[in-house]
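Narrative of activities, Objective 1.

The group set out to show that a structural description can be obtained from nothing but a protein's sequence at a throughput compatible with the screening campaign. Below is one input-output pair from the validation batch, recorded exactly as produced.
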Amino acid sequence: MKCSDLDMRLTVIGAGHLGLTHAACMADLGHKVLAIDVDRNQIAKAAEGAAPFFEPGLELLLRKNLDAGRLRFATSFAEAADFGYVHFLCVGTPQADNGAADLTSAYAAAETLAPCLTSRCLIVGKSTVPVGTARKLMTLVRALAPAGELVELAWNPEFLREGSAVQDTLHPNRLVFGVTSDSAAQLLRQVYAKLLAAGIPELIMDLETAELTKLAANAFLATKISFINAIADVCETTGADVALLAQALAHDERIGRQHLTPGLGFGGGCLPKDLRTLRATAAALGADSAASLLGEVDAINLARRARIASLARETADGSLAGKRVAVLGVAFKPGSDDVRDSPSLDVCDRLAREGAIISVHDPAATASAARLYPHLRYAESVLEAAEAADLILHLTEWSAYQALDPAALGTVVAHRTIIDARCALDTDLWRAAGWTIRVLGRPWSPGPP
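Output recorded for this entry:
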């Protein structure tokens, strides 16, 4: 079977954050796309052009391609097998209790799809998985599929970031193809023909290297974040300024500027999970030095949450009981409503357990947070959250918070005290408005009397 670059029929299995974004973007490249998921409610929403999560630009892309007839949704694996020649596997691989990735959905999807495959096709994994998963899935699928050896499997890891997922999918900085044959590589080139023609680098490799590439990339980013946070602790004890230090490091082209902002640390559904998955894999393989390094990176990151809670307690003269604390931001990062492993919510919960009265604001994530932490208070505006507050915590660096007028905010609080846990606010501006502002790793002094 041959397909032209513009009329390929693709299926996307899994309509979560990764799958829904990938389906919409593949349709926008001109392909005919059928996305399926076992969650009927999610499929029904997607078929109406509604994303069940916050992702800038995604709903516009969904409606555009639904209206153009290039994108549709279903729940049937048999329908997917009949429709497509290339099947993208985009199911979730959340963290299991032992720290490794939970591959239940990946194997379930493969076991359900395989008996429906009666002719030559290519399954392309995009989910983040431990090394060795792809070959196991290929063996499983070929054993269950009527087409047998005619079913090929490749791995094409995603590198999208929540909050910029559409941009990252349509304008990636590289395309990684883990394949076992030239024909699989050629088919992936057809899928991504427009991106390759635009000059996006293509990297062809084996399955194992492709699987490890995604895990290693996220583990490296996590290491860089934990490194600058560890240095922030050194700066605090010496009176040095970690923000100025980071600027100096950024001028070294071997280091670069990205991910050198100290603060509360990373969270979400990817970076912590991928770090722990790689650590568990390294430990299982006897790569003790890698496992030890990654374990320390994780420990440094988690310690940031306790450090902010401790700083809040210190700022409140040793006791948070009965103190009103306004929290700005609970999404794990700006541009998202995702609160999975949210460092901010972890801090909120710690302070609430010490008796603090927490009032939360977030531009997108309050509904998601309220489902998990109903004992916190949620405000519709920053001013409402800050009403009579003894302390404000800036925990997610939304641009709206950086644009706040500290003088106006100062009129509603009980005490003009703020902890900037993301090193993102203009400290001079806040101090000039009479605020005491504390920033991890930076010298501090109270504002004007």
